[in-house]
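This section describes the prediction task in plain terms. A model, or a person checking by hand, is given the sequence of a single protein chain and must write out its three-dimensional structure as a string of tokens. No templates, partner chains or ligands are provided. The sample shown here is typical of the held-out split.
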Amino acid sequence: MVCCMALTGCHNDDDITENNNARPDDTPRECIRPDFLQPGDKVAVVSPSYVTDDVTIQMGMDAIREMGFYPILAPNTNKTYLVKYAGTAEERTSDLEWAYNNPEIKAIMCTRGGYGAVQLLPLINASLIRNNPKWLIGYSDITTLLSFSVATANVMAIHGTMLSSLKNTKGKAEDDIMLRDMLRGDLPRYEWQSIEHPNRSGSARGILVGGNMCTFTPLIGSPYDFTSQGDIILFVEEIGENARNIDRMMYSLKIHGVMPRVKGILVGDFAGCGDEFQIGSIEEMFDKHTLAGLQIPIAYGFRAGHNGVNWPLIEGAPVTLNVTTDRASLTFE
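The expected answer:
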């Protein structure tokens, strides 16, 4: 069940004066909420990671039109570098900065993930993003850029669907409509039933961050680390990883001192992941081993990740997570 609500936003207009991407101190700042969109507003289409084929781009742009917005293709999107990348790191960074510099563009949607966004982090101008806040949309490898937006530029971003998915859904799937409504300022209040695995009950409030685990865990302790945002509600998802690697990444959060700041965990899809310990599932491994003894609410079954559905989430937004054994809700404040 999904209800809708309004987000008042948390603006912070303090100037940013750093000459690089390091935060001037260790104090988390409130994230700027970009302006919501109006029908017909322009959305930039960029490829910060792997290259995307022309058919996917064109069909995805048609879907953006179906959602009521006007897509504009970034200048370097059709380039290819080293077979896999959508241009050099400099070209991909240039496309992002082109989008942030263009006052007519109100949001930025990535074409796909893959790998390569991490190469852009030292090149992106955080002040440019902070001074021109726009909704950056993506998931998977794009989690890297969502983390940059929240932690380094202090601008909210959206973990949500990309052109690679819109190609198939044509902008008409449930999560496409949720994303459209979210961009217009009509936010969901998520309520869902955890059918396959019992939750760990409780209530918590914090700043929502997270996404693809193998993408954000290497950033822990860096200037690009969104887990440093004080009290957090952590969203996690993964695809095609062995159970030991997922366990290792969660232990990395513990070793780096992140877990005391985690007030609740939102567990998304773990598509095609291994079970070499024969526990039964990644969720069972979390409950019985990796997160055993952790006295915070843990909500399973949130529909986001690599299983074909991506309920959109606003990274950097304050949220409340309420969890019972078999149900959970997530509310944007």
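For orientation: Confidence is low (pLDDT under 50) at residues 4-20.
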